[in-house]
Give the backbone structure.
Amino acid sequence: MQILSAEQIRTWDQFTIQHEPVASVDLMERAAGKCVRWLKEKPWPGKKFRVFCGKGNNGGDGLVIARLLLQAGYSVSVFILEFGKLGSEDFQINLQRLHELPFADLHFIQSSETFPVVEQGDVLIDALFGSGLNKPLEGLSAQLVQYLNDSGATVVSIDLPSGLFIEKSSLGNAVIKANHTLTFQCYKLCLLVQENAPFIGEVVVLDIGLHPGYLQEIVESQLLLDEKMIRKIFRPRQRFAHKGSFGHALIIGGSYGKMGAVVLSTKACMYAGAGLTTTFIPNCGYVVMQTSAPEAMCLVDEEEKHLTNLPDDIEKFSAIGIGPGMGIHAQTQHLLSFVIRRYHKPLVIDADGLNCLSLNKDWISQLPPYSILTPHPKEFDRLFGEHANDFERIQKARQKAKEHKLVLVLKSHHSFIAAPEGPCCFNSTGNAGMAKGGSGDVLTGVVTSLLAQGYPPKDAAMLGVYIHGWAGDFAARKFSMEAMLPSHTIEALADVFLVLQ
Ligand SMILES: NC(=O)C1=CN([C@@H]2O[C@H](COP(=O)(O)OP(=O)(O)OC[C@H]3O[C@@H](n4cnc5c(N)ncnc54)[C@H](OP(=O)(O)O)[C@@H]3O)[C@@H](O)[C@H]2O)[C@@H](O)CC1
Ligand SMILES: [K+]
């Protein structure tokens, strides 16, 4: 699914109006109709709707929703936020239509004294501002947003939580805290970044029938990964394949007290289908690794507790994943520099591998092209400097991916993948049960495995992130988000591949 900018969405609306063709007010009727259909399917205990409208087209949507709910027999009150403007054309048409209903309960909010009493069981429809927001809310609008947020009632936002910018940070601004966001036609950037989690609640994308022809006219720049895209990347195993057909992965990691990380990466690498998996670990981890991952081969460092020196012949491995649990000892940093100089295929670097890299930033430009880095936001900032918000991080990830020819996976609820070429992607799988130590190690193993199997680096990152999250979703269904562990995610890769085949 494409992720469009505010400008593109506006153009898509106009394209639809022109090419379907459909009158703008009829498109609004259709959009609001989809919202009402969704609302009717939910068992709202209070069944009392309070619709808050601005005077743009988002407010127009609110007026249509109010009319349709009234006509369906629900109890509805409408509150229009006054800010000295006439309102958009479609807003005015729909205000007139609402007026024509004999039982419309319509109010205008001109000051905070006219804020209505809101009860706990009420359902608030937030149609104050949508994609036309052009500055942070202030004055009466900001007060109303605060008042509704404090009410404790359920909030359903239409298109976007009011006050939320589509393409830039809204941190510190007055923004509606929605329980559900019914957004039109496609995901927007603001609905995918972690920092907006308090505002957006459950996101439902409603197909309002915008003209598909428009999508053929634009260059894809941001996508939300979905199963259809993943199926195009995934290559089922051939019947006559042998273990040599699926590459030989090397996982480098571990230190005293942190062997679990490299065990998880190793197991994930094997579960994700690598033909052969070898690990390189400190001597203290030998028994741990051989007993917990007997299918893997094990090379050990001469040093007991941390990594120092690799064998020379690392070029023979099809892919290398480095970092899980390996610490940042000076000798371990030296080992990473050896890998960067000696290995010429793309690497997968995570965790302490990234921390070693951020202590030696000049190595970033020496990484083998198309290496895959998988930082979480803190690791990302250590690598590329402090960022005030997620939007800046995403922008920087795009820039650095191009500048250094890297595939950057910015890990988050919707992980973001930037590559030197082609559209960037957000992931759509995964859940809060994966926010646990060890999840990243599993991802490292999966991505290294796919790289070893011959997937191009960007495909390995996209497929890896998606199936990792998907496996996490299977694990959550089986064990709950609370109790699930990264080990369960590894095992649930089996469920993913059974569905994919
Ligand atoms: N056919 C279509 O196009 C369809 C569009 N659809 C719907 O339209 C929505 C977009 O509508 P929109 O463009 O009218 O913008 P909207 O979000 O209502 O706000 C604009 C109003 O707010 C004002 N305003 C802005 N910022 C402000 C601030 N900080 N503080 C105070 N005021 C502020 C601004 O005033 P201005 O500053 O421009 O004078 C203007 O009056 C979209 O989200 C979707 O819901 C659907 O029906 C599907 C079909
Ligand atoms: K809204």
